[in-house]
């Protein structure tokens, strides 16, 4: 790790397939950060099991997610790519930090309240302490910046509060992390319900495009995309949510700005516009899909990638964990 550079940590749960929303909102930005920062990008499988997962599918998705990170342009030589459950320090720090996190503050987390409402039959302790594990992810690597969407800001804030509390009791131990919401981090909305974020929870519907979707699936979803009753391609994120979302997608896929797009489709019907957006996304995703499929054929290479990633991550993580164990008064850990 280059000690001159700041550290970035982020992760995505392998609880669903990566979507066009995850690519445009997160992964595409990660690619731009790899030169300027020390970056760790994690596949947070331990977070995924806070909601019941199908084991075979979780395994398959975790590997596919790694392949997609690489296919999207995250260079495994410049970044640390790994699977959370392979680095035991996450679970170990999480236990300690849980003892410095209050029941009350976890009860106030909005994601917990939302998920508890959605999973009434499985409000497990892991769901409740999810923010503690996430704080451990971040704090283990002395992370400065955490690229996340608006919905995850509260989690970075609680990580910061926990770090402050621990530093206050035992002296400087953790860097205080900050949420990092990239300027170009366009938020992609569902094609069917453009008032909601495109989410992997609607993975099997036409509202959501997955990174590995075939061209005909993509084209069908765009043909069916919800628009409005006006027939003018114009950006208005208040009154024309569907069209504005399609314009954002088209803009990312082609590099054109909104004015150029408005001129290009001046006088055209929505049908032509939707077709053009669909085609641009097919071309945007084609190389990613092909590269992912290639990588997935080479299981040995993927195994080598995640092994190296976990080794690099472990080396950094164990420094922080040793420090924490010493500060709280644990007897020095034997090496065996
Ligand atoms: N909670 C994040 C999400 O649902 C995923 C996550 C887990 C994460 N650990 C993290 C994100 C650490 C950033 C940093 O999107």
Written account of the structure:
It is a single chain. This protein has 336 residues and is mainly alpha-helical. The protein has two domains: 204 residues, 3-Layer(aba) Sandwich (Rossmann fold), CATH 3.40.50.620; 95 residues, Orthogonal Bundle (Tyrosyl-Transfer RNA Synthetase). Helix content is 54%, strand content 7%. The protein has 13 helices and five strands. Strands 1-2-3 form a three-stranded parallel β-sheet. Strands 4-5 form a two-stranded parallel sheet. Helix 4 packs across helix 7 and helix 4 packs parallel to helix 13. The chain is globular. The model has no long low-confidence stretch (mean pLDDT 95). The structure holds tryptophan (TRP). Tryptophan binds next to strand 1 and helix 7.
């Amino acid at each position: 790790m280059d000690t001159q550079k700041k550290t970035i940590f982020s992760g995505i749960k392998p609880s669903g397939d990566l979507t066009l929303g995850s690519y445009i909102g997160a992964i595409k930005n990660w690619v731009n950060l790899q030169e300027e920062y020390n970056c760790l990008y994690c596949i947070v499988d331990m977070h995924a099991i806070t909601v019941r997962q199908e084991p075979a599918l979780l395994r398959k998705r975790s590997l596919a997610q790694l392949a997609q990170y690489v296919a999207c342009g995250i260079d495994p030589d410049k970044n640390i790519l790994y699977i959370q459950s392979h680095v035991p320090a996450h679970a170990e720090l999480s236990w300690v930090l849980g003892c410095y996190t209050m029941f009350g503050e976890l009860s106030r987390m909005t994601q917990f309240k939302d998920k508890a409402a959605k999973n009434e039959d499985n409000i497990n302790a892991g769901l409740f302490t999810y923010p503690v594990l996430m704080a451990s992810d971040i704090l283990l690597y002395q992370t400065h910046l955490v690229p996340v969407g608006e919905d995850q800001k509260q989690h970075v804030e609680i990580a910061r509060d926990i770090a402050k509390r621990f530093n206050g009791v035992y002296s400087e131990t953790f860097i205080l992390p900050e949420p990092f919401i990239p300027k170009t981090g366009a938020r992609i909305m569902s094609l069917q319900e453009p008032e909601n974020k495109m989410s992997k929870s609607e993975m099997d519907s036409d509202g959501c495009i997955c990174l590995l979707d075939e061209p005909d699936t993509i084209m069908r979803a765009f043909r069916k995309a919800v628009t409005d009753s006006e027939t003018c391609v114009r950006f208005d994120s208040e009154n024309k949510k569907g069209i504005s979302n399609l314009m954002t997608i088209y803009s990312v896929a082609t590099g054109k700005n909104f004015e150029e797009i408005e001129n290009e489709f001046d006088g055209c019907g929505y049908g032509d516009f939707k077709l053009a957006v669909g085609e641009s996304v097919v071309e945007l995703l084609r190389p990613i899909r092909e590269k992912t499929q290639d990588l997935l054929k080479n299981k040995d290479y993927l195994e080598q990638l995640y092994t190296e990633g976990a080794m690099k991550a472990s080396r950094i993580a164990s420094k922080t964990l040793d420090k924490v164990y010493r500060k709280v008064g644990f007897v020095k850990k034997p090496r065996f």
